[in-house]
Amino acid sequence: MPVFSDTEKDFSVRLMYGIMLACGVVVLSYRILHPIFAEKPKAIYTAPYLVSVAIIVCHLIAKSGRILLAAHVLIGIEWLAAFSVMLREGATQTVVFPFCLILILISALLLGIRAAYFYSFLSIVVGITSAYLVQIEVIRPVASTGPWSSLLGEICSFILVAILMKYTLLGFKTVKTELSEVQRYAKLGGWSLNMQTLELVLSKEYQYLLGYDDAKESKTLHLSTFLNAYVFDEEDKARILDILAKSRTQKKITDCAVEFVYQIRRKDGQNRFLAGKGRFRDSTIGIGTAQDITERHLAEEALRPAREIYSKVFAFSPIATTISSVHEGRYVEVNDSFLNLFGFTREETIGKTSIELNIWPDATQRKAYFDKLSQEKMLVDQELILQGKNGKIIHAECSTTFAEINGRLCAINLVKDISEKKEAESLRRLNKEISDQNELIERQKQELEEILKDLKKTQNQLIVSEKMAALGQLAAGIAHEINNPIGVIKSANDSIQNYFESSTDRTIRISEILQGLNAIVLEELHTFLNKGKKNQEILSPKEVRTRVKELEVKLKAKGFENPHSIAQDLAEFGLDSSIEEFPNLFADKDVQVLLRFAIAEIQASKSSQLIDMSVNRTSKVVYALKKFTHWSSEGIKSPVTLSESIETVLTIYHNQLKIGVEINREYNDVPPIQGYADDLIHLWTNLIYNAAQAMSFKGILGIRISRAGKNEAEVVVSDTGPGISASANERIFEPFFTTKAPGEGSGMGLDIAKKIVETHGGTIRFETSPRGTSFFVRLPISGTNLELRT
């Protein structure tokens, strides 16, 4: 027989197997004894075999755990056995009817009352059908097999009923015992009260709570006796009597239900706390339970001071704090700091969600915050942008954690307003950027002065050399390259200083205006500023004048006085369509002041960008000058990147080349070579400047860097000049030979260039035609860092 931990299911299995045992014993006994006692034994005993089949099939199904199906099979096949007897032998066989009654009882126990009704109906129908078929002589009634045979059938029926009742009562007793043990383990007892006589019945489990561990059955006593004997607190007595009196006045007394906590004194003198629950079964009898909750009650009392302290801290905290349910997101409690920060009342907040209050201006930010919270379970000081009831933007640091409150999972949220802190940080950051830019300008000014000193000193030292000639060629261009960005930096710096000199008064006035603006105007202002700061469009003077005229007409129509300056700024900043895009910024005079403030902000941003661009340009020139003027005297080879070395020369000659010379660069991937950096710069200077002069500084200058074989790099410098004459081809690398006019060249440039190439172990050659000339320089890639000049 299978065993189950489910008490109800286990009881059903035990009952079913008891029925199977009883049926098996009875039909087997009947099959053996009936032929002995019957005067006329039957030819065929069908019923015993059907019952045996039912028992075997039921056992096999029950082993698979399908108890209900097994019970249906057992009852169904046994009823078929009775059905066969009734149809074959007629309804006059009295032994069949007790057997049908037993089957009906079994079906009620195993399958429920509906199954019992079903088999009762079938038994009646079959009995009537059998009697009718006997009457019309379709079935011949079987003659009596004798009194002893009938008595044997009756005895078998009684035995079957006795065995069935034994297993049924045993199952009920098991369920009742296990239920009592569960109640005792849970410290739970039951009671009932007669509302008319006030007789109180305490269950055996309730008596356990009172200290009567040897209680065997329920106990009846008057309510007053119970109160005087076990309830020692007068307030508890009064409350119980008051609950009883109120319950009597209820019109629908069966709907009345109560819950209360009271103290009792046990038999051994211990005081315990019980939680009572009750309701009325009808208009007279009340029933209920009591559970010992002493440990939980004492723990809650111990936590009461901490809860009071927490409640005060929550209410008076200067940080906005809320408690919301996790599953619905609705606010359960908020403190005054939250209401003051966001501008809501308590009635508007409690029971609502943050979405309903429109606290999140950016739904994407809200989703990212809660996604991160679901992963990490707790967040601390996350910077967010929220908004109040009136659309006020609030920069906040938010922290969230989870806690169970009164059996419900809640989120505790802290919101710290950092709007003033963010504004202060923004001002400090801007001031620091300007200060850093000024320091950088000063440092670069000093570096320029030092470089110019070094340049003059180098010119004095190399006045008679080819290097000095190259420096002389660069003087005007270098001055132009340095003076231009310095002038831009000076102008932009003056603009920023003027902006900050008037920033205090402007900030005070603008802050007053900003407080009165709605969220739509603030959003337009924010978009207007971003668009103006990001604009990179460069317009010709003619385009600017055309746009200014159009804007002046539109601004006059909006009521602007002297609109020329605003129109000029809008055109230069690429905001000529802003009147249509941001209509609220051009609505009234107060917003016009805000517009001028926004233009000043954009102008300061543009000035900062000009300073940054000019500083980068100056840094590039300074870097190139430093590399160009640093002539090493140590004579030690070092890694040289050919593209960087050539770009240094192009930077120095930028001013001479930028007007008429187009530079085509083709830099392939070539590893650094081992060489003398200062000599290589001089090599490229000669080749590039000669190429530019050959084209009269108008044409295409081509520079290609590539790999020639495995161990060499090749640099090709080409021009689109008239080429070198045939008579000069063989003498081009001779000292003092030049194809230039007198006074324009010393004739040492290409001689020095050839020596530099040979010093590096390379080769130099050229190809020329009427369409231009190309010089090919090959240098070895391999070498050691410590190789010295020879």
Automatic annotation (TrEMBL):
Which top class of enzyme applies to this chain?
A: transferase
Which SUPFAM superfamilies does this one have? ATPase domain of HSP90 chaperone/DNA topoisomerase II/histidine kinase, Homodimeric domain of signal transducing histidine kinase, PYP-like sensor domain (PAS domain)
Q: PAS domain: which residues? A: 328-362
User: Catalytic activity annotated for this protein?
Assistant: ATP + protein L-histidine = ADP + protein N-phospho-L-histidine
The transmembrane residues are: 15-33, 45-62, 68-87, 94-113, 119-139
> A Gene Ontology MF term for this entry?
phosphorelay sensor kinase activity
Q: Name one Pfam family in it.
A: PAS_9
State the EC number(s): 2.7.13.3
Residue runs in coiled coils: 424-465
InterPro entries on file? HATPase_C_sf, HATPase_dom, His_kinase_dom, HisK_dim/P_dom, HisK_dim/P_sf, PAS, PAS-like_dom_sf, Sensor_kinase/Photoreceptor
- The name on file for this protein is histidine kinase
